[in-house]
Structure prediction request, 422 residues.
Amino acid sequence: MDNAFRYQDGELFCEGVAVRDIARQVGTPFYLYSSFAFCSRLNDYEKAFGNYPHLVCFAVKSNSNLAVLNLMANQGAGADIVSGGELFRALRSGFPADRIVYSGVGKTIPEIREAIGAGILMFNVESMQELEEISRQARILGKRARISFRVNPDVNPKTHPYISTGLKKNKFGMPMGMALEAYRMAMDMDGIDIIGIDCHIGSQLTDLAPFVDALDRVKSLLVDIESFGIELDYIDIGGGLGIKYHEENAPSPGEYVRAILDHMDGLEHKIIIEPGRSIAGNAGILVTSVINIKDTGTKKFIIVDAAMNDLARPSLYEAYHAIHPVSRGDAVHEAVDIVGPICESGDFLARNRLFPRIARGDLLSVFSAGAYGFTMSSNYNSRPRAAEVLVRGQEFAVVRARETYDDLIRGEKVLDWTCERL
Ligand code: LLP
Prediction:
């Protein structure tokens, strides 16, 4: 978090702005991002690569707010996208097309056409079928498409099963055993320029060994590929570096990059990485207010105005997010569940948490919410999605307005039908 969020005299600040002041003006719940935290994490990656040729492609899925993306683009990052919608956002926010890589396990024909049309740096291709489609569309558009194959190195990232991707049983990538043949076939395909090799093994990895194993496997395949005359420019090793949510000991971007560079064994291929969480995760918090406090005799529930539709991670992965009052208070702690108003028992932000005594109306902040927070939010229970706010130094700006009830029903219509045959 690089102390972008810190307490001064018991009050939580984001850089130079008191969180309470923002809440007063914006209302709750809202996501709050520190531009300093975003930039300093990106800079950690940049510094660690130094002069080694590289491109840091920010994973748009982790935080796709236009202002955040624009900040990353202005700092020289590229973008890793997985859909036409993310391509649209990446271009709108100012990423040059030649800094955009397109991963994703199921690219549709319109999405492929949009990306070829835009002239992105490369497609990370998942299968021969997909490659044939890319080639066909490139020919129709009279353009060329640059590609890497995404290979599946079959290493265990030792992370939550929903976010591990580089095992044989996962849907992602092409088995190593098939990749050589795929490269050979791609050589003769119209409209295709083969420029790299790609893998991504999972997310929230707190151990560097699986990254290095995956790189070793990719490197040996690369040597085989180049032995039949294809020269690759890029090795894309995906994203996945973990962060500290609670008690994890996550390596820093610098340690991660050094481990990669130490294993390049004299190869000089340009390295692409696709970090999302390790840049965005601790650059954002979710600010919420206490609606009610309910003591059932068995349990104490703090009911807040943010819910699983705003931050799905606790419900979906049983993920831990630190939660603290915006104004530090009572030293007495008691065990509570912090829950949202949604009609599901799975709607919780924290369970059995020791928490200081607080009151109705108090503000709480949910930490490490900058990645996979807003981007995974929904309108479940017809809840308008939260506002997003970006801070820089002493200033802040609402970079996504809180949704209104009208936003909730946009595109819907009432037909005033009754059922014909009952
Ligand atoms: N590249 C590819 C191809 C990916 O699939 C992902 C994440 C990334 C890069 C970025 O990974 P990161 O550096 O953020 O770990 N919703 C889950 C995380 C899903 C990650 C999916 N892919 C969560 O909240 O934990």
